[in-house]
Amino acid sequence: MLKHRFLVAQLGARMHYAIPRMLHEGDMLERFYTDICAVKGWPRLLGGIPHGWQPNGLRKLLGRVPQGVPNVKISALTSLGWAYSKARVGVEDPEQAAAMNIVFGRKFCEAILQHGLGQATATYTFNSAGLELMQAAKKTGVKTVMEQTIAPRAVVLEILTEATKRYPGWAQTVPSGPNCDAFIAREEEEWQYADLILCGSEFVRNGIARRGGPVDKCRIVPYGVDTRFRINRGPRKPGPLRVLTVGQVGLRKGSPVVWEAAEIVGKQAEFRMVGTVAVPGELLMQKPENVQLIGVVPRLDVIEQYRWADVFLLPSLCEGSATVTYEAMMAGLPVVCSENTGSIIEGGVSGFIVPILDPVQVAQSLQLLARQPEMLTELSTAGMACADSVGLAAYRQRFFAAVEDLSQ
Question: Are residues 91 and 78 in the same domain?
Fold first, then answer.
């Protein structure tokens, strides 16, 4: 069977560079192109700055290290990455953000094509940032794989439009206009040039189907997380049920549902919400007393938040496949999430799956766990038994099984 050589084009440090790392481990990585990282160009010189003197932005940049990928195989388009980073600062208008992402997605592809495809027999790109690269690859007979990291933008906007009717004020505006339309068109045109489309969940594939996309090209490949999130849990401590949510506090993550559920549950539970707070100031006054906003927590420190919790909650309106749910399972936490979260939990076995925009069912699930500690223990045990399936080794196996479809 033909073993393809991949050129990977990835803006940012998604999944801690899991794709180029796995391809290198499988002796299938020809070249890895990214925008900016800490091991190439002038950013590598910044590592000598003492940690205490590093501002948050610099620490984030220095964390962009493609572990497991040899430097000789990495091409960082640092100037483009720096320009992209500066362009994103302060951009809140959805139309402006869509236009910016289209421009830099195109520039990224064009910069890679100036270097050429080399000996690559396949390309690997991510939604909205690979169109021109795939178009060029198809002309030369090079295979094309793309990853749809979240439900299609058009589906996201449909869901958010309905959600703003229920929760006015949580989103300033629902993105719409010619630039948003152009972004949707770009994303959907990529599907036509892809030989294979990898989706993190059934929810993502269903979104492509909902837009009339080529479902026959789609393969579902759930993700995986590091075993360092594994926690040996003891009996639940006395007191209110401790409920943890990790992710941006905002509409798309289902945060207003969390707040309504917290009000219903009352003193039976206490809630911690870890992540950037993207809630209009006037709404913060409505936060329930049993909800604590923790803010952004360094990645390694998040483990302590999982250790604190009894249950993990994420009633997202739209995701790809939220890796925080994998981390929670690895930590032995029952997971309460929506189907749109793209989680691999099994409802009634390792947690509960609830409809979106349904705080009553969220509250009922939490109340059940608060009143029946033996059920909490059973779900936790079942989740820990599935830990291997949410680990990186299992993700690697699923990934290579899907990529083999290119050769058949």
Answer: yes
User: What string of DSSP letters covers 26-92?
Assistant: TT-EEEEEES--TTSSGGGGGGGS-GGG--HHHHHHHT---TTS-GGGEEE-HHHHHHHHHHHTT--
Q: How many domains does the chain have?
A: 2
In this structure, what DSSP letter does residue 227 have? Answer: G
Name residue, tokens 């349904």: 358
- Span 239-243, average pLDDT: 96
**What tokens appear for 396 in the block?**
């690697």
317 and 220 housed in the same domain: no
What residues pair up with 224 in beta bridges, in sequence order? Answer: none
Residue 254 lies in a domain: yes
Contact 248, 293 (CB under 8 A): no
Question: What is the rounded distance in angstroms from the CA atom of residue 197 to the CA atom of residue 242?
Answer: 38
Q: What are phi and psi of 246, to 5 degrees?
A: -125, 125
When pLDDT is cut at 50, 70 and 90, the band that residue 229 belongs to is confident
Alpha-carbon gap, residue 235 to 380, rounded angstroms: 10
Instruction: Please report whether residue 1 resides in a domain.
Output: no
pTM of structure: 0.92
What's the pLDDT at 48?
Answer: 55
